[in-house]
Every structure is written in C-alpha cells, then in structure tokens.
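In response to reviewer comment 3 from the previous cycle, which asked for concrete evidence that the modeling workflow produces usable outputs, we include below a single protein chain processed end to end. The sequence was submitted unchanged, and the resulting structure tokens are shown without manual editing.
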Amino acid sequence: MTYSDVQGGYAGTGNINADPLFDDGPAGDFHLRPGSPCIDTGNNSAPSLPATDFEGDSRILDGDNDGVATVDMGADEFRVSNQAPLSPSNVSPSNGAMGISLTPNLRSSAFSDPDAGATHAASQWQVTKASGEYSGLVFDSGSDTSNLTSITVPSGTLTNDTTYYWHVRHQDNRGNWSEWSAETSFTTLAMPLSVTTTPATGISATAAKLNGEVTALGALDFIAVSARGYHSLGLRSDGALWSWGYNYHGQLGLGDTTKRLSPTQVGSDTTWVAVAAGYAHSLGCAPTGLSGPG
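The workflow returned the following structure tokens.
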C-alpha cells in the first residue's frame, strides 16, 4: 500500500500518519477540509485511478494552489473555493473633479481576491453621460488584459464641458468578475476661448464672444495680445496688463478661479512690456524681470 494516510503509520512510498481533517468522519462525511495533509499528496500514476471521486467530481485538481495538479489521497477530491475578486474603487480622477482633459487617465484600486493564488487577469472600464445608465456607453474597453488598473480614454471619445460617469471591474485568472466599482464622475474642460472682433484700430477690439456669451472689450488700445486654449492676456499702450477667459487654475492672475467674460486689469502695475499665455499659467515681463501674474 502506497500514498495513503494510515492512523499509526504504515510502511510504503508516500504513506503518511496524520489527521486527514475530514469534515465529519464519525458521521461519514469524508470531505477534506482546507489544510488537509491528504490534499495534492496522492499519486497521479496510480493504477486504475478513477477519473472522478466518490461524488462524481473530477480528479485530478490543484487543491493547494501551487500550480501543479495532483490527485488527493482518499475518496474525496478537494475543490478549491473559487470566489470572485473584491470590487475595486475608482481612484482618479477624484469624484466630481472639474477641468479634466479630453483624454483622462482613469485609475482603479489594486486587485484583491479572497482566494489564495488568484491573480489579476483583466479589467473592464465603462464611461457614460448619464449617472447609473450604462446601456448607452460613451466608452467601453471590453475585457482588457493590458490596462488592469489604469487606462487612458482615447482621443475623440469625450467632448468639452461635459460631465461623465464611470466604473470599473476586475477579473481573476479563473474567469470570475468582481462587482462594478461605485460610480464616480468628472467634468471635462470647457470649450476653448474664441474671440471675434468688429472693426478696430490696430489690435483694439470692440466686442468679443466667449462660448456664445457676448462681452465688451471696449476701446482698450491693446498693443499686444496672447491667447492659449482657455484664456487671453492683453497689454495696453499704458503698460497695464489685462486678462480674461476661463480661470480654473487661477491663470488670470486675479487671485481667484472665477472666469471673466470681459478684460479685467491685473493689479495696478503699468510697467509690463511683454506677456505670454500658457496652458494653465501666464507670464509677464517688466523692467524688473520675468514675473508670473497667474
């Protein structure tokens, strides 16, 4: 006799003398409990080895999750629990975030699974315009085996000044999907500032339009104008600096994040000689050197 668990011991290859950890041996329940010394300690080459255990369940299984399937000792073939991964959470963008780019990087929490040996096999990412409504999707990654905990939404998918809702789920290496993460939202950047002018002298203008909202520039006699994306800067002939447009990052240099639909003077300095608008910042040059009004 070999590869057997015998009380008191018995000479032979693979034999052991240990509590087999039956569920309830005295009552005739010979199912093996987790941690039983009989799990994965049999002989796959044993003569006349049946293809199923006493209940008709398949043998041979990897009962100890070591990556090698070995038959169990005894009448029962221990079946590893196969639980779904834990539901992930949305990490970024943060819930309710504003001014997000049109190609945001969505990021989830790390993979977690209650089963020992389970690994992260795939993720699925979905974005929608309507909270809780995922039948008409803006973006669906499908089962993605590459972007497991982060993904960048492709260009051309999202539009400006729109609120989106998203969630994600994880899949383990046994094909089990987690529940979807709790939904969170973000709002994309507003439309870029567009300026239209009426007849003017030099660079002066008498009217401007910001996303359809008409505002007056007035006769400010700008000698230089710089615009980048969502805000503009104007340098007057008297050396004063003016700014207008969107102000998510305080780039207007006015000490707040409120947009301005008409030019507003930046401070009282009248020694500016050059200005430059960046994506989310502004630069100005005065005789004393380079400064950042926003």
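The radius of gyration is 34 Å. We consider this sufficient to address the reviewer's concern, and the full set will be provided in the supplementary archive.
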